[in-house]
Amino acid sequence: MNTDEGTQVKNAQSSKPRMNRIPNDEMAKVMRNPWDPLHSSDWDECIPTTICLRRIQREISSMLKESPPGMFIDTDPDNITKIHALIIGPSDTPYENGFFYFIIRCPPNYPFQPPRCRFMTTANSTVRMNPNLYQNGKVCVSILGTMTGPSWAPTLTLESLILSIQSLLSENPYHNAPGFTKERRLGDSKAYNETLKHETLRVAVCEMLETTNVVPQQLREIMIKHFLKFYDFYIDECNKNIDKDGQQMIDPFNKNCGLFQYSSLLTRLQQLKYELESNKCCNEEEQKSDFDINQDISSSINIASDRLSDCSIIADEKVFDNERKVNHNQDEVTEEHANDIQSSEKNLLI
Q: Which Pfam families does the annotation name (predicted)?
């Protein structure tokens, strides 16, 4: 690497600080949760480098054109370094067809420093959906620097990060936890999966769709479309497990588990379908009404234009007819006048 290249990289790795002072309480939050994108006042005080902005734009553009199955992103309208990510639970896992929402924030000197990421589908910080996805939103992935393992490298991308998180939503997530490669108690992994299936329906489907403005509108529309498409799957899951109602759920990583409530979930899912389809019909009716109004306006304009054209033709015909009559009258007058002159000339000769 020559001197100029080394200088460029060095400048890219350091972002220019703003002059505003960070309040002590905000800085304390950053220090307590250095992984949290929602408490990034230290980054707010720095201007993103040109390399950072260009890299983020390129990666977002690439993902919007073609992203891996089950992964969707949307940018924040006020901050390009803030990305909203939605992962749909993979098939044949306890997370199947659930909606898992994450907020990602890129540092001002990205990609030379890892992003920060927060898991948002936690039912107000009460549910730990995975050994690596905590109730408080912390995402434990080594490339984020939140657990031991391979660290972040500038060659990694936002897609790399989301793929790493997606891999956590596995067939047997019990074994994701350090030291849990084998079951502590026989049957724990299966029991944990049963709990996650229930909580996926309760938190990652019902609550995610019942609460509006949880995710950006573009991601919400993806969720609604997927929900209606796989509605029968959700209902089948409830019906297959409804005999568990009232039994205690088991979660080795969260002692405050509740009871299975598939009957309640069944009712909520049915209500959701009704409301979402009703809203869809209303929106379609509004669009149809707007279309009809536009069609009526267009038709009225066309009719008025045709009438004007007809009036113009009629007027032209009347003008032509009048001109023809005038010309005819003028010819008759001229002929009479000529006859009078001839008669006068004959009288003079006599």
A: UQ_con
